[in-house]
From TrEMBL:
Short name of any one Pfam family annotated for the protein: PilN
Taxonomic classification: Bacteria, Candidatus Magasanikiibacteriota
Highest taxon, organism lineage: Bacteria
Organism in which the protein naturally occurs: Candidatus Magasanikbacteria bacterium CG10_big_fil_rev_8_21_14_0_10_36_32
Residue ranges crossing the lipid bilayer per the database entry: 29-51
Name of the featured protein: Uncharacterized protein
Keywords: Membrane, Transmembrane, Transmembrane helix
InterPro entries with a match to the protein in the record: PilN
Amino acid sequence: MMILNLNLLSESRKKEICLFARLGVLKTLLIYAALILILLLLFLPLINLLLSEQLNNLVGNSSLIGSGHGTYNHRVLEINTKIKNINLAGGQFSLLTPRLLEIINTTPPDIQLKYITLNLTSTELALPGTALTREALLNYEQILKKTTWVENIDLPKSQLLQKKDVPFQIKLKITLPKIEENCQ
């Protein structure tokens, strides 16, 4: 058996039918796209409402978190203040240890120093102690005068009245070293 396909339509009519079929598919696609768009537009206010609630909850929680960390913030502020003070103190830094060692090393054996007091505001060094003799104390004053960084030596004459076991307190006015001197 033989199948015959007779097409009695003209070529222009065939093109029209093909065009109508394509238009039908396009129409169906546009309808589906419109339905999807309508569904999205219906859900948009719902999504907006949910997002605004989430934002309000987040803002409320952040205020609770911020109030809970107030003590930590205060502690961090204290630590930052201490660091700032340390940096300020470092700006006034000068190396005094070699100079104090120089005083200790130049002290004769017949002079006994009790302690050394340093006053940075008046740049004054106090050396209280006891000398075996008055001559030893005067000799120590001469040794201190040879020190280049000592500006003034104050040894009260009333302390020179005793001949032996002379208690004294020498006050030295000193020049503080500059930071540049320390770096060399």
